[in-house]
DNA sequence: AGCTTGTTGAGGGTTAGCCCTCATGTGCGG
DNA sequence: CCGCACATGAGGGCTAACCCTCAACAAGCT
C-alpha cells in the first residue's frame, strides 16, 4: 500500500517513513510543505496521505487545506491528519468536510506502532479514524461552549494575531485588509466574546486572554 | 555506539530509533518517562542518551532533571536534549550545569539526518552541540534573565493587574494611585521589558504576554 | 425571490492610553 | 553630604483604537 508523508519536521517525517516501511507500506514520497504534497499526489496518487496539519508557510491549517484539495482531485486518497495538539476546531472541520477515508490523530498519543499502521490502513480503506481523547472532547464540548466557537474563521485569524501582540495596523498589512475591516472584526470579536465596554476593562487584553485560555 | 532514547511520544521515539540504527548506532533501550530512562542507564550505561526535555508525569523538565541525574551517576554518558520549542531557560540551565558532552536541539529544526547523527556522535564524544537559533537567542539574552526581574515590586503589581485585562482607570482605583502614576509605571514597564514603540506592535498585549510567560 | 450570515469597508466622531518633560520626597549606601 | 533608585504625579500633546451607522456583495438555504 502506497503512502505519501507531509511534515516539515524532518526528524519526525523520516522516522515515521521508516516505521511505515517496516509495517509493509511503500512510502512513495515525502513533502515538507503543502505545495510539495499536492505535487506528489498529482503525480502519483497514493492510497493514503499522512499529513501534518500545520505546515509552512503559515503553520496554521495548510495541512487541512491541502487535504481538502487532495479530496477534490483524488477522492479515493485516504487522508490521515496528524496534529501536535488537541484542536477540536480542526477535528470538527475534518468530520464535517470529509465523510470517509479520513483520520485525525495526535502525534504524542500514538502509543502503539502496529495500531498506528492499522489506522493508516483503515483510512486508506475508506474508514474514519479519530483519536479517542478527541472524541471525548468533542462530546464534552457540545455542552460546554468554547466562546471562540462563536467566532468566524476570519475573526479567529484576527484574534490569533491580536494574541501575538500585533497592532491593528500590522493585522491590516498581514491580512491584506483595510484598517476599517480590522476594526469591524475586532468589534465583532468583542461582541461575540461578550466583552461589553466597561470602565475597568481593557477589552483587547481580555479578548487575548480568552484566546490563550482556549488554545 | 550505544544510545538510549527517552520520549513519551512513541511515534517520534520509534522513528528516531530507526533513523539512528540506520546511521550505525545501537539503540540499547527506549524509555517513555524519566524513571524508565534512569533505570535503563543504570543497568547498561550508553555512550549517549537522547532525551526529550518534557516527559511525564509533569511534562515540564523531567528530561533535564533526569539528565542531571545521569550526569551525576555516569559522567561520561553524553546527553542530547531535544525540545519542541525554543526555550532559553532550559538552554541556559543546560549550559551552566553541564560542561561537556551535552547537546540541545529542536525537534522541528533537525533538517538533515546525517547532521543529526553527527550531532549525536559529537555529544557522545564529549562535545557540546546547540541549535544555532538558540545560540543567537542566548547571546542576545546574556544580559537579561527573566525580564520580569528587572521590574520593581510596584511595577509587577501594575503588570499583574494589566494581565487581568484591567484598564488604567481600574488600576488607578485599585492601587489608590493617580492616573498619571499608572501611566508612568506602564511606561517604565515597557522600557524595562524592552518593548519599544513599533508600528506593528501592541505593546500592552506584549507586556501581558511576557507576564503570562513568566508565570 | 427573500432572508441570513459572512466579508469587506466607507464616513465620521471620541477618548483611553500612550508620549514627553519636569518635579518632589524618601530611603539607602558610600 | 551626594547620588541613585523608587514612588508619585502634574502639565501638555498626540493618535491608535475604539465607537456608531450605513452599505455592497457573495453564498447558502428555504
From TrEMBL, chains A, B:
<keyword id="KW-0238">DNA-binding</keyword>
<dbReference type="InterPro" id="IPR001789">
    <property type="entry name" value="Sig_transdc_resp-reg_receiver"/>
</dbReference>
<dbReference type="Pfam" id="PF00196">
    <property type="entry name" value="GerE"/>
</dbReference>
<dbReference type="InterPro" id="IPR000792">
    <property type="entry name" value="Tscrpt_reg_LuxR_C"/>
</dbReference>
<dbReference type="GO" id="GO:0003677">
    <property type="term" value="F:DNA binding"/>
</dbReference>
<protein>
    <submittedName>
        <fullName>Putative two-component system response regulator, LuxR family protein</fullName>
    </submittedName>
</protein>
<dbReference type="GO" id="GO:0000160">
    <property type="term" value="P:phosphorelay signal transduction system"/>
</dbReference>
<feature type="domain" description="HTH luxR-type">
    <location>
        <begin position="144"/>
        <end position="215"/>
    </location>
</feature>
<feature type="modified residue" description="4-aspartylphosphate">
    <location>
        <position position="52"/>
    </location>
</feature>
<dbReference type="InterPro" id="IPR039420">
    <property type="entry name" value="WalR-like"/>
</dbReference>
<dbReference type="GO" id="GO:0006355">
    <property type="term" value="P:regulation of DNA-templated transcription"/>
</dbReference>
<feature type="domain" description="Response regulatory">
    <location>
        <begin position="2"/>
        <end position="122"/>
    </location>
</feature>
<dbReference type="InterPro" id="IPR011006">
    <property type="entry name" value="CheY-like_superfamily"/>
</dbReference>
<dbReference type="InterPro" id="IPR058245">
    <property type="entry name" value="NreC/VraR/RcsB-like_REC"/>
</dbReference>
<keyword id="KW-0805">Transcription regulation</keyword>
<dbReference type="InterPro" id="IPR016032">
    <property type="entry name" value="Sig_transdc_resp-reg_C-effctor"/>
</dbReference>
<dbReference type="Pfam" id="PF00072">
    <property type="entry name" value="Response_reg"/>
</dbReference>
<keyword id="KW-0804">Transcription</keyword>
<keyword id="KW-0597">Phosphoprotein</keyword>
Amino acid at each position: 500500500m502506497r503512502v505519501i508523508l507531509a511534515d516539515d519536521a524532518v526528524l519526525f517525517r523520516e522516522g515515521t517513513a521508516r516505521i511505515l516501511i517496516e509495517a509493509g507500506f511503500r512510502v512513495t514520497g515525502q513533502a515538507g510543505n503543502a505545495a510539495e504534497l499536492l505535487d506528489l499526489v498529482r503525480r502519483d496518487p497514493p492510497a493514503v496521505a499522512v499529513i501534518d496539519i500545520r505546515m509552512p508557510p503559515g503553520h496554521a491549517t495548510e495541512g487541512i487545506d491541502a487535504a481538502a484539495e487532495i479530496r477534490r482531485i483524488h477522492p479515493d486518497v485516504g487522508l490521515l491528519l496528524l496534529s501536535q495538539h488537541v484542536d477540536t476546531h480542526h477535528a470538527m472541520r475534518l468530520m464535517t468536510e470529509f465523510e470517509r477515508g479520513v483520520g485525525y490523530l495526535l502525534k504524542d498519543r500514538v502509543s502503539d506502532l502496529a495500531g498506528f499502521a492499522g489506522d493508516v490502513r483503515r483510512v486508506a480503506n475508506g474508514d474514519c479514524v479519530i483519536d479517542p481523547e478527541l472524541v471525548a472532547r468533542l462530546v464534552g464540548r457540545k455542552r460546554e461552549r468554547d466562546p471562540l466557537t462563536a467566532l468566524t474563521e476570519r475573526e479567529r485569524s484576527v484574534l490569533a494575531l491580536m494574541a501575538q501582540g500585533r497592532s491593528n495596523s500590522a493585522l491590516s498589512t498581514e491580512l491584506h485588509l483595510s484598517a476599517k475591516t480590522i476594526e469591524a472584526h475586532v468589534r465583532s470579536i468583542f461582541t461575540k466574546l461578550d466583552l461589553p465596554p466597561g470602565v475597568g476593562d481593557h477589552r483587547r487584553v481580555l479578548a487575548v486572554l480568552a484566546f490563550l485560555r482556549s488554545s
